[in-house]
């Protein structure tokens, strides 16, 4: 049996450990080095010291009482002492192995790995096995797992696809979010007071405020009629989007997908390198995603649903970042070619059961209500707060933009939603928020298809179809406003094929 590298202790400490220990160390450094001052410091921080000690002991316990061994058949992990838990996993049952190397791990030639199976876990971000091991040992383990995966695939020819920088930048641009970028900034600034000190937080906030003031004044000289508060909000949105874009660009740099039999390997990352080893027969679903702009431009992004892939923080289950859905486009990989070469087990539908004009209201009325209510709310607020007219008008305009886009998206979804069966796959097109999804689920990975009807749908004989795959979480893919009779006939045909 082997034990992990001692650096694994850091991974067993929670983020609250660092929020406590760094201010304690800062307070200890600032006092005069004599026993009286140290005693007074300890008396004032006794509860924080006790909690830090308990957290550290728990992390050391987790490290000391975790051992693992590997052989040609599988991996075994023993954890704890009272009770002692033994986890045996054979390689064929593994869904995915992910490996991560940040700058510290690369310098020490270590790899942090996560092993995932379809077995349910208590928390969404938990993995079946998490280990820190040397690079050479990791290489031997992945060779064994790859050999096990390779035997199960229908595609025997080795196929590789490398994403160019332009395609990576395009994907990062299309899938970046101003909200997530702003959240990253707020988290960094708000946490700086606890970790490093209030002075740094004040300095950071001062810099942010100073920059926003300067930009607001500069833009205000060019654009008249927008309030300073509105300009600051626009700057925050712009900076948030930029942070999200850079984060996605660094994460997806040097993205490469290699298919060898039933083994799929994805390498990505510039600063922090990541590797994903995926068992092809454990892929639950292929999901081709588009937003409204991508749909108009004939672009799509291929994602996959496989236990463990995409469940870590800021991680997307990307398989091919960008490809073309138009046959005449010669610049990008065609979606049909990508599916044929790398994912031959999955088929896309041809004759979808689509929605009817009578069912369009099911999709369109929520965003239409959103579009109509915002001007009414703005009018009411200006009556009570006339001095805030410019700000209220600006916020209403900012709010109307996503509402109108949502309305257009839902109208397009009415034209595209549908379900079909092709070969041994259940195929569906649906819309969720601002994204269009085209999914393909093999019958053997199809757990359940549920049909629901509201009272109004019973009257007009429509229904919603929810598709559930054989994953560790029960998450349905909803296809709304379809003709109930045709869907039931299709499901009967699917039952006969299975």
Can you characterise this structure?
The structure is a single chain. The protein is α+β, with helices and mostly antiparallel strands and 498 residues long. Among the domains are: 1-64, no CATH class; 178-251, no CATH class; 349-498, PH-domain like (Roll). It is 47% helix and 25% strand. It has 16 helices and 21 strands. The strands form four sheets. It has a seven-stranded antiparallel sheet. A hairpin with a 5-residue loop joins strand 3 and strand 4 (85-90). Helix 2 crosses helix 4 (46-64) and helix 7 (165-174) crosses helix 10 (228-252).
Number of strands: 21
What is the percentage of strand-forming residues? 25-35%
Secondary structure: helix percent: 40-55%
Quick check: average pLDDT?
Answer: 82
Structural class: alpha+beta
Helix count? 16
- CATH architecture assignment of one domain: Roll
Q: Mind telling me the CATH class of one domain? A: Mainly Beta
Q: Notable features of this structure?
A:
498 residues; alpha+beta; PH-domain like; 7-stranded antiparallel beta sheet; 21 strands
How would you summarize what this structure contains?
With 498 residues, this protein is of the alpha+beta class. Helices cover 47% and strands 25% of the residues. The longest helix has 28 residues, at 389-416.
């Amino acid at each position: 049996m082997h034990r992990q590298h001692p650096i694994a202790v850091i991974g067993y400490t929670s983020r609250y450990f660092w929020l406590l220990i760094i201010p304690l160390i800062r307070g200890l450094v600032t006092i005069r080095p004599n026993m009286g001052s140290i005693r007074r410091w300890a008396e004032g921080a006794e509860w924080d010291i006790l909690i830090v000690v308990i957290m550290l002991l728990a992390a050391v316990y987790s490290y000391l009482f975790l051992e693992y061994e590997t052989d040609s058949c599988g991996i075994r992990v023993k954890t704890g002492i009272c009770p002692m838990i033994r986890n045996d996993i054979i390689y064929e049952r593994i869904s995915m192995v992910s490996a991560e190397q940040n700058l510290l791990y690369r310098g020490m030639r270590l790899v942090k790995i996560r092993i995932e199976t379809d077995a349910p876990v208590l928390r969404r971000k938990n993995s079946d096995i998490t280990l820190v091991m040397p690079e050479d040992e990791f290489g031997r383990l992945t060779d064994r797992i790859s050999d096990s995966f390779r035997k199960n695939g229908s595609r025997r020819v080795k196929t590789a696809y490398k994403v160019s920088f332009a395609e990576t930048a395009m994907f990062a641009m299309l899938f970046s979010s101003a909200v997530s970028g702003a959240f990253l900034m707020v988290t960094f600034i708000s946490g700086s007071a606890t970790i490093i000190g209030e002075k740094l937080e004040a300095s950071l906030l001062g810099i942010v405020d100073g920059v926003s003031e300067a930009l607001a004044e500069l833009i205000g000289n060019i654009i008249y009629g927008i309030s300073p508060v509105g300009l600051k909000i626009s700057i925050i949105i712009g900076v948030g989007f930029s942070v999200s874009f850079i984060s996605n660009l660094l994460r997806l740099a040097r993205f490469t997908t290699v298919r060898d039999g039933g083994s799929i390997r994805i390498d990505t990352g510039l600063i922090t390198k990541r590797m994903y080893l995926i068992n092809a027969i454990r892929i639950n679903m292929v999901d081709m995603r588009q937003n409204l702009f991508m749909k108009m431009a004939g672009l799509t992004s291929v994602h996959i649903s496989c236990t463990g892939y995409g469940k870590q923080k800021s991680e997307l289950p990307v398989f091919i970042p960008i490809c073309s859905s138009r046959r005449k486009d010669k610049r990008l990989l065609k979606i049909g070619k990508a599916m044929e070469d790398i994912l031959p087990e999955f088929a896309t539908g041809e004759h979808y059961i689509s929605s009817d004009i009578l069912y369009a209201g099911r999709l369109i009325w929520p965003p239409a209500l959103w579009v109509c209510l915002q001007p009414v709310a703005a009018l009411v607020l200006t009556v009570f707060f006339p001095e805030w007219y410019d700000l209220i008008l600006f916020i209403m305009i900012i709010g109307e933009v996503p509402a109108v886009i949502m309305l257009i998206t839902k109208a397009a979804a009415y034209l595209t939603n549908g379900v079909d069966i092709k070969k041994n796959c259940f195929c569906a097109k649906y819309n969720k928020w601002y994204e269009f999804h085209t999914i393909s689920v093999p019958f053997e990975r199809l757990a359940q298809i549920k049909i629901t009807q509201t009272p109004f749908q019973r009257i007009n004989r429509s229904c919603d179809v929810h598709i559930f795959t054989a994953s560790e979480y029960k998450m349905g893919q909803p296809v709304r406003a379809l003709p109930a009779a045709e869907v039931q006939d299709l499901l009967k045909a699917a039952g006969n094929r299975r």
